[in-house]
Amino acid sequence: MLYYLSQLGDLLQGFTVTKALNVFQYISFRALCAGLSSFLLCLLFGDKLIRHLVKMKLGQPIRSAEEVHRLNELHGGKKGTPTMGGILLIGAVIVSTLLWARPDNPFVWICLVTVLVLGGIGFYDDWLKVAKKSSDGISSRLKFALQCLLALGITMFFLSSPTLSKQAQELYIPFLKGPLINLGGWTYLFYIIVIVGASNAVNLTDGLDGLASGCTVMAGACFGVFTYLAGNYKTAAYLQIPYYGFSGELAVVSLALAGAALGFLWWNCHPAKVFMGDTGSLAIGGLLGVLAICCKQELLLAIVGGVFVAEALSVILQVASFKLTGRRIFKMSPLHHHFELSGWKENTVTVRFWIMAIVFGLLGIATLKLR
């Protein structure tokens, strides 16, 4: 919205204010401002939201099954900590994006719709958990179906557009200059896997104080770089990466996400005063998936979000191993719980996972020159 101040500068040619207003046309400036705005919004409104959630008694239920008795001993003190803090995070992303992004960019609206829909699904899930005073929210089948419907709608948007359809069907591999194959009708399945998989991967990672929010900071910053470069024809051609004209504006969304995650971490670091819940984690993961699709770096998401991928794979492998052999690979899944039960303190697990998130992010950025 503030982008249009640059056009006001064009009307005021000859005045000293013109140059100052022209700065609003630059994506880099608006992206940095979006990150700072979302960070400050979380700091300013975090305490008020936490007080309101506590007043409404929206506390986090803790699992009590026998198999997680040891985990309950470690986390029992968290019972009653307010959840649904994702409202703060996604609210900061939405407000900052509306302030600093160009409203005529369709990719921006795809991202905002993704955040709202998945945030709404997560909010309803969190609400049911609190109402039932149980860790069981909406059924996994219903949640999966709703996520798939959103992903299907986004895929239809790309494939129905004459200007986007051809490139949307192409699969790009890191380290290769051009597309590997044309997915054709398989694009539907591929996009569903990317969006739904990313959404659930972040959701699984959100199990320790500050873990998911800290890893999101790096992922958001990386996609700020990817989207900015993919939206600039000269840099995209120089780096031999896919060019998508609309994607440059998503640097604003990406840094808004990074800033909001950093601001939320202020309240979510150990000992957490609030949890993001499914409200935040489902929305964050889905947004990362859409950002990857919009800059044609879907597979690079698996590198940048390496921590999220490892968490999701640990659950898949654990379930598969138990069903096939009756044995468990890990002491408990997701992966962060395995390390906790191996004797690592919660802060140790979180900080080491943050370190790995930074390493994965740097690896992802490095691939831009390895083509």
Structure notes:
- It is a single chain.
- The chain is mainly alpha-helical.
- It has one domain (27-170, 178-297).
- Helix content is 68%, strand content 2%.
- The chain is built from 17 helices and 2 strands.
- Strands 1-2 form a two-stranded antiparallel sheet.
- Strand 1 and strand 2 form a beta hairpin.
- Helix 3 packs parallel to helix 12 (250-268), helix 5 packs antiparallel against helix 6 (106-132) and helix 10 runs parallel beside helix 17.
- It is globular and about 50 Å long.
- It starts with a helix and ends in a 5-residue tail after the last helix.
- The mean pLDDT is 89.
Quick summary:
The protein is mainly alpha-helical and 371 residues long. The chain has helices spanning 5-11, 17-22, 27-55, 69-75, 86-100, 106-132, 140-159, 165-168, 187-205, 211-230, 233-239, 250-268, 277-294, 300-304, 306-325, 335-341, 346-366; strands at 170-172, 179-182.
